[in-house]
Amino acid sequence: MADKSMIRSLNRKGSRSNRKPPVATRLPAPLDKSACERCGATYVRGTWRATRKLALRPGESVRFTVCPACKQVERGESRGRLILRGKYVGEAREAIERRIANVARRAAATQPERKLVSSEFRDGTLEVRTTSQKLAHRIARELCKAFGGKAAYAWSDDGALDVVWTRAATR
User: Fold this and answer.
1) Domain that holds residue 101
2) Is pTM beyond 0.70 here?
């Protein structure tokens, strides 16, 4: 009989064989050496990158298209949602929004498919929506490191992530 480690290693339930984000698997792949006309990301060898330069041969041209993340932002479709609650959110709103923007900018530098979709402040609550659940998770983790508070994570059946970050007021 196999031990538990061998049984667990053979269980592939819930894992994807490809590493593409869900939005990229729903859309047809663009042609190689394409560039996004909105954000400037380039598509080479199956991946979108923000910093990659296209190496073109003489007579070859860049094909302009719109990347999956820009299409997702245009449609208002999100895979990650953060809800920031507590009196501290109202007190330090500018610092929190600045931190969120910095984390999103840092993530987009290497992975242009991770972007902010929207940010809305209403009744002392800030709601931030992202194109990927990983970016939402990263933002929540960075808020906990920078400002304290607690984050509660909930994944839905369709693969979206809902995060609730709370922190009481400063004393």
Assistant:
1) 77-166
2) yes
